[in-house]
Amino acid sequence: YLMNSKDLLRKAQQERYAVPAFNIHNLETIQTVVEAAVELRSPVILAATPGTMDFAGRAYIQAIAETAAKLNDIPIVLHLDHHHTYESIEESLKLGTKSVMIDASQKNFEENISITKMVVETAHKYGATVEAELGKLVGQEDDLIIDDCDSAYTDPDLAVEFVERTGVDSLAVAIGTAHGLYKSEPKLDFERLTKIREKVSVPLVLHGASGVPKKDVQKCIELGCTKVNISTELKIPFSSGLREYLINHPEEMDPRKYMKHAKQEMKNVAIEKILMCGSAGKA
Ligand code: 13P
Ligand code: ZN
Ligand code: NA
């Protein structure tokens, strides 16, 4: 029942909205974003980093996502987020994952191309689609921390060459967003995004959307981003909801009670983000 990202992102590209990619970590967070998407009739991408796979187990995440897709009549994609190795991706492809990201953006251009190309060849044999990244995002994803001076924006001409030589299905661009929240309001390079969009035809992906003002995210969507990645802004309400509930109910020891509250708080934000992406009613 899980699908790859191709049709989903192509439709979004044609109709000028973005599919939200929400980072999930376990049963509860998967249920939460799926419930929000079902309520709003939105397609949804469940994004799992290597850290999440270590925490929850690849097979568990795969099975839970598969079940979510089976039980609900909206398009649901399980997507590997920021995977750095060929081996980890192949492991998930064998389990039935249909959408993957190979992030070799830390490597030099030629190495990025060669590993991405290898992943594309294998993934396509499994009917899976591949996202890759060119340029570097600041901030933290799992345990990898990139600081400002190491960041590099995506070069539009190199993006053309990268897409042509790798055969990648979608491209994550670095235009000034960062993983996590921002110390001050981020300045996005819309001109660069426009140039990339003019030159490259595959769907473009905006990472690091947490903390970016809604109007800026929507401008990126207008300018051609068709997948918007959101992690931190969903972690916050889940954690604060849980913390608040346990503080107010110090005797509570039933996970079904406190998890329910955490899920509700997270769901409210997921709904907001779906509305921001313009994907409501597109399922
Ligand atoms: P944020 O945590 O800033 O939302 O970034 C999410 C992301 O890019 C996941 O790949
Ligand atoms: Zn990211
Ligand atoms: Na961010």
Features:
binds sodium ion; 50% helix; binds zinc ion; 10 strands; TIM Barrel; alpha/beta; globular; two-stranded antiparallel sheet; 17% strand; 283 residues; 11 helices; eight-stranded parallel beta barrel; binds 1,3-dihydroxyacetonephosphate
Strand content: 15-25%
The helix-and-strand class reads: alpha/beta
Contiguous uncertain segments of 5+ residues: none
CATH superfamily: Aldolase class I
Number of domains in the coordinates? 1
- Mean pLDDT equals 96
For the termini, the CA-CA separation is 14 Å
Helix share of residues? 40-55%
Strand order of the largest sheet: 1-2-3-4-5-8-9-10
Number of H/I helices:
11
Query: How is the main sheet built?
Result: 8 strands, parallel, barrel
User: How do the SSEs run, as a string of H and E?
Assistant: HEHEHHEHEHEEEHEHEHEHH
Radius of gyration: 18 Å
Strand segment count: 10
CATH architecture label name? Alpha-Beta Barrel
3D structure, described in words:
Its cofactor is Zn(2+). Keywords: Metal-binding, Zinc. This is Tagatose-bisphosphate aldolase subunit GatY. One of its GO terms (molecular function) is aldehyde-lyase activity. Zn(2+) 2 binds at residues 103, 133. This protein is α/β, with parallel strands linked by helices. The protein has one domain: TIM Barrel. It is 50% helix and 17% strand. It has helices at 6-15, 27-40, 50-56, 58-71, 86-95, 109-125, 156-166, 190-199, 214-222, 232-248, 255-277; strands spanning 19-23, 44-48, 76-83, 99-102, 129-134, 139-141, 144-146, 170-173, 204-206, 225-230. It has an eight-stranded parallel beta barrel, surrounded by ten helices. Strands 6-7 form a two-stranded antiparallel sheet. Helix 5 links the parallel strand 3 and strand 4 (99-102). Helix 2 (27-40) crosses helix 11 and helix 5 packs parallel to helix 6. The protein is globular and about 60 Å long. 1,3-dihydroxyacetonephosphate binds next to strand 3, strand 10 and helix 10.
